[in-house]
Amino acid sequence: MTHGKPDTGNADYRDGGLEFPASFIFGSATASYQIEGAVNEDGRGPSIWDTFSHTPGLVVDGDTGDVADDHYHRLEEDLDLMKSLNLQAYRFSIAWPRIQPTGRGPANQAGLDFYSRLIDGLIARGIRPVATLYHWDLPQALEDEGGWRVRSTAEAFGDYARIVGEAFGDRIHTWTTLNEPWCSAYLGYGSGAHAPGVTDPESALRAVHHLNLAHGLAIMAIREVASNDPQFSVTLNLHVVRPATDSAEDADAVRQIEALGNRAFTGPMLLGAYPADLFEDTKAITDWSFVFSNDLHIINQPLDVLGVNYYSTNLVRVWPGDGPKQNADGHKDVGGSPWPGAGRVEFLAQPGPYTEMGWNIEPSGLEELLLSLHGQFPGQPMMITENGAAFDDVVEDGAIHDVDRIDYLRRHLTAAHRAVQQGVDLRGYFVWSLMDNFEWSYGYSKRFGIVRVDYDTLVRTKKDSALWYAELAASNRLPD
To answer: What is the spatial distance between Cα 237 and Cα 261, in angstroms, rounded to a whole number?
Structure first.
């Protein structure tokens, strides 16, 4: 491995033939509610996403995750599919309401049995199991008690983590506590774009803290019961925020968004403290009295690897007040704001090209993010736990020639490779997603998969990107 700025490479990040370290892991990722279906089977209880998706007008075309990809019934087929793609690891999430239908009480054995079959099937195929404890499907019964706004949900999460730790703690390679708590807190309780659809800035900030607390409690619980010396992780969607101008005002806009979007999580998790400027920026909303004296000690658990999700960048400035305020932050606008206390900040539209989500394609942002984290947290190993793109795939004679997706993956993997060359301890890359699935409030209208799912027949078809990625995973070399 060489250190320092790479001497070669195309300005557009379209490099080929790059060799990744032999230990570098190539995998893929999914989430329980997005693929499993079987929402009313084998004792599973309702989640906030069942409630949200069944509420008219909240999800495109009224889509729900009731069937999704029917992964619950097609487990063996999907495991064989992963094996055929040469995946070295698979990041899946455990549905809390499948384990504890109301979020409390004894485990539902049928739920444990399903994930045990999944884990054993992965190991039998030489694929490392990477388990995410929470990918947004909170048991509805806990939301009825206050959800992530209240401390008792974090405490219940610790109990849930202990149950799954006892059940699978001899076989899981890496435990990831939370997926993108920014989305759970700010989109779920601030903007209302995600379940449970609340639009209240104080609730969003309460959720931030209780998710952070849940993270710490979960690691402590699993560390006590796991027997195979697993790795511990969390996955954060950290924002690459750039100023519209070089003015001090716009620099301060970047600071404020980074406090809400990044440091609200990395501060307590990795440094053991919330940033003082976050408290100052939000003092008109809350006094943060829900943070108890020992909480930061609980949250600040050593992480073996930091999971990084990356899709696009943000461009901000202080809104001048004339004309309509732009809100191009990449998230569906349903009326509320996912940026509590940051009403003065304007998110500007950025130059294309874009994915079908309307997100700008900017591989340099990934390199920038990895290097920034490396500078802030020297020695912290990292893994790209999600990166990928939705495109309007076309089926031609049974094939899907998704050249745009291959180009997207090539460019972002080049960015990752350049970060490794500059000394970043990057351990692996998980493409989002293994297959097309329920894309939250966008329903089935956006396709992220490297494998196509026909939602009428549920037939899986490998796209060209899947064949490309399989070659990469087999060789650890970026195909030419």
So the answer is: 8
- 255-282: per-residue pLDDT in tens? 999 999 999 999 999 999 999 999 999 9
Give the gyration radius of the chain's Cα atoms. Answer: 21
The CA distance from 52 to 56, in Å, is: 8
pLDDT of residue 16: 86
- Percent helix, strand, coil in the chain, to 5, is 40, 15, 45
Distance from chain centroid for Cα 151: 23
d(Cα 364, Cα 426) in Å, to the nearest integer? 16
CB-based contact 391:402 (threshold 8 Å): yes
d(CA 76, CA 96): 22
Return the pLDDT at 382: 98
CB-based contacts of 436: which residues, under 8 Å, 6+ apart? 69, 444, 447, 448, 449, 451, 452, 453, 455
Distances (CA, A) of 238 to 50, 144, 475: 27, 29, 29
DSSP readout, 454-476? -TTT--EEE-HHHHHHHHHHHHT
Q: For the chain, which residues score pLDDT lower than 50?
A: 1-4
- How many whole angstroms separate alpha carbon 94 and alpha carbon 153? 17
Q: Phi/psi of residue 344, each to 5°?
A: -80, -10
Please calculate the CA angle 180-357-61 and round it to the nearest 5 degrees.
95
Place of tokens 């912290």: 380
Task: Give the residue numbers marked as catalytic.
Answer: 180, 386
The strand pair at 395-396 and 399-400 is best described as antiparallel
pLDDT tens-digit series, residues 396-415: 999 999 999 999 999 999 99
